[in-house]
Design goal:
249 residues; mainly alpha; Tetracycline Repressor, domain 2; transmembrane helix; transferase; EC 2.5.1.39; membrane
């Protein structure tokens, strides 16, 4: 009799435990033991590695090349985008209705933006090399830090401008002349902060030149009713973002 009762009690406890396991499976799992078909916790973001960035590309480049890449600010691409975007606006506006912008022109202007932004930064650092040494934010720039000599930066500037000229020569004659005219702004902009409290205006006039050049590259000449409002709107945009940038430092 006692054996029979004991057997029923054992079966009842097993059934009860089995029922609880079905109703509350989380409570019955062994701590840390994954079940069949269960997803294991993913690794934390740090374990997956950081996303690829241009700063990482520059850091992984051959050491003799790194100062030149930093001189042209390849590790800080926001300036290149700010130079490139006005070009895309005008190229897009010049496209035929219902058509996509000219991808060949977009790629040409993208290449030109990288080269001319690099050339502008090189000119800026050559002009300001003595001042950069005295400012914490700029003291580690390649010329100020002595990683590149003035002569080496001058040769590097010539290489960038030569490549940019090659891009410019792919455009029509009107655009070649218009693009060459922007070089005066590129050279003189770094000096504006020495003679005026509005260097952002000079930067805006320089950085938004692509709003004129992009349209002329497609249409053969500038249409003032389209290009001038776009150009001066870009200048105002630059005044805003560069003033914010200045107040951040």
């Amino acid at each position: 009799m006692l054996g029979l009762l004991g057997g029923r009690l054992t079966l009842g406890l097993r059934a009860s435990a089995w029922g609880r396991a079905r109703c509350f499976p989380v409570l019955t799992r062994a701590a840390g033991a994954p079940q069949v078909g269960e997803r294991t916790a993913s690794a934390p973001p740090e374990a997956r590695g950081r996303p690829l960035s241009l700063a990482a590309v520059v850091s992984s480049a051959p050491r003799p090349l790194q100062p030149y890449l930093r001189l042209m600010r390849l590790d800080k691409p926001i300036g290149t985008w700010l130079l490139y975007l006005p070009c895309t606006w005008s190229i897009g506006l010049a496209a035929e209705p219902g058509c996509f912008p000219d991808w060949y022109m977009l790629s040409l202007f993208g290449t030109g933006a990288i080269l001319m932004r690099g050339a502008g930064c090189t000119i800026n650092d050559m002009w300001d090399r003595d001042y950069d040494k005295k400012v914490t934010r700029t003291a580690n720039r390649p010329i100020a830090a002595g990683d590149i000599s003035t002569f080496q930066s001058f040769v590097f500037l010539g290489g960038q401008l030569s490549l940019a000229l090659g891009v410019l020569l792919c455009l029509n004659y009107y655009s070649i002349a218009l693009g060459a005219a922007s070089l005066l702004l590129v050279i003189t902009y770094p000096l504006m902060k020495r003679i005026t409290y509005w260097p952002q205006l000079a930067l805006g006039l320089t950085f938004n030149w692509g709003a004129l050049l992009g349209w002329s590259a497609i249409k053969g000449s500038c249409d003032p009713s389209v290009c001038l409002p776009l150009y001066f709107s870009g200048v105002m945009w630059t005044l805003i973002y560069d003033t914010i940038y200045a107040h951040q430092y």
